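I am writing to request your help with a piece of structural work I have in hand. I set the record out below, with my sincere thanks for your time.
___
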Amino acid sequence: MTALLANVASCPIEDVRLAEHMRRVVFLDPPHHSLGYPPPSDPYNPLFDRSIPESEREEAFANWVSGYYAHGDTPETLERKTPLPDPPPTLSTLTPEEVGRMLCLPPGAPGGSDALLLDMGIKLGLFEALREGALYTGGSGQPTGDGWADVEVRYVSCERSVWEMPWGTMLLRKELEEARAKGLPVRNVRMVFVKGANHFVHWDSPELALRAIVADEDVV
């Protein structure tokens, strides 16, 4: 979505003003690295945990990324590693057939295509540049066109998601507050918070996910 918003002003607009048909653009609980934010000093990901046998890391990652976490309100109190025992991690509740239909882990493992894309995007500053291009409007050098400046950007964050998501939310909120205080031209970003939900809210609680996306509520 950052790539879309960062480049939408360069799209053809001669015959169609697409912004007139767009109600909002939704960021659904994204991790910090997809927004180009740096990790904390003590990040954790089981795919890189050498204490876990390599053959068990994919299963450990699935349970880790789909777990429910008890976080505090500060970076120091974000739980990095251990999910709550209840509710259980979403992916642990599915049948092998369901997991096989919805999950393909090798591309995200070290050396996989997704992992290489992520690594190079971080090293080259791509995700940071896309975030800045998406958040700020009317900057010098931007193409002339319909940049969707009036289209709402809805940022949905889930209370129990793995630490990468609330960490990104904290950094985005801080950036927006500082930018608005400086009078910078930022988009209309609406932050929506889903209580009790994890990163797989669309699977475990689809009604909450739908409310977060379409309803007029800041807390769901």
Remarks:
- Residues 164-181 form the longest helix (18 residues).
